[in-house]
Design brief:
Elements (H helix, E strand, L loop, with lengths): L2 E6 L4 E9 L2 E9 L3 E5 L1 E2 L2 E9 L5 E5 L2 E3 L6 H13 L1 E12 L10 E11 L13 E6 H9 L6 H19 L2
Parallel strand pairs: 4-10
Antiparallel strand pairs: 1-2, 2-3, 4-8, 5-6, 6-7, 6-11, 9-10
Length: about 180
Amino acid sequence: MSTKEIFDGKIFSVVQKEMEVNGRLMWRDLVIHPGGAAISVIVDHKILLVRQTRAGIGNVQTLEIPAGTIDAGEDPMVTANRELNEETGCTAESLSLITAFWPTPGYDSEVIYVYQAHGVSKAEHRLAMDDTEDITLVWMDVEEAYQKIAMGEIRDGKTILAIYHAKLQELEATSEK
């Protein structure tokens, strides 16, 4: 089976790949992406979100959990720690993996790793943000963030996953009492 490179960009590439599906050969357009790591930070029932403008949805400002692209050969946890520092100025004593998922497996190879931060504090040395980033930090009550999903104000998949996870943890903690 053959593959043709169509585009090779800074963050992703696009290829056409010949595949066999149900005994027939066909070409598929695929986005090849190194993946990303995202961090859910919950402190005192508040989740840390970043407000930023996203070109892919028409320069709309979104509320998302901090996240970034995995560098070549980089461990996703290293990416998560770096992005937490760059985007928020925070550091974590430890991270635990909530899950890894494929956001659009029909045409994209990207895997997003979502981590829960533990022992969050202000970083001693803050890393510089990418020059393309314009980020505002927003601490939001988990319940309010949950309601913003229902109202269509939070639509980012990794962020929805993190908020649902936080809400589930709160419900489990309440039921254990």
